[in-house]
Amino acid sequence: MAKLNVKIKKDNNEVKYISILRKITNESMQEIKQKIDNNDIVLSCNLLDIDELVEMKKKVSLLLNAHAKINMYEDKREVSNEFLNNLIESHFDTERYLEQIDEHTMRED
After folding, report:
1. pLDDT one-digit tens code per residue, 64-95
2. Residue 31 vs residues 18, 24, 50, 51, 52: alpha-carbon distances, Å
3. Which among 28, 45, 91, 109 has most CB atoms closer than 10 A?
4. 8 A C-beta contact, residue 53 and residue 42
5. How far is residue 69's CA from residue 78's CA, in Å, rounded to a whole number?
6. For position 109, what pLDDT does the model report?
7. Cα torsion for 20, 12, 31, 8, to the nearest 10°?
8. Residues contacting residue 17 through CB under 8 Å, at least 6 positions apart
9. pTM of the predicted protein model
């Protein structure tokens, strides 16, 4: 399954990031701190699930607003926040397109 993974670069403000992550994950402060220290993945979501992507966007925004320096990866390839935004928009475009096709098909019947 294709995943979007997020890592946070360790800096002097990690207490802020740990606090944010503590509120949005079920992990302990120690687990989160260890992940940041080891440059491990702190957040992950399914690239094909629009709800998970939208939720990830909110979480990433919280971290960015706290001035976290994050790295996002589509599996092993590093991607930008713009990639996440474009992916979400692409999912919504596809949903709108499919709805239009359904409406058009229903009118023809």
Report:
1. 999 999 999 998 899 999 999 999 999 888 87
2. 9, 13, 27, 25, 22
3. 45
4. no
5. 13
6. 60
7. 70
8. 8, 32, 36, 63, 66, 68
9. 0.83
Query: Which spans in 38-71 are helix H?
Result: 50-65
Token digits of residue 33: 């701190």
Single-letter amino acid code for the residue at 86: N
| pLDDT of 19 strictly over 80 | yes
φ/ψ of residue 61, rounded to 5: -60, -40
Encoded amino acid at 30, one letter: Q
Question: Which tokens sit at 43?
Answer: 């957040």
Residue 5: what are its φ and ψ, rounded to 5°?
A: -115, 145
42: which 2 tokens?
């702190």
Task: Compute the radius of gyration of the chain from its Cα atoms.
Answer: 17
Token pair for 19: 């606090």
Model pLDDT for residues 37-65, shown as the tens digit of each residue: 999 999 999 999 999 999 999 999 999 99
The two structure tokens encoding residue 81: 């926040």
Give the amino acid at 76: K
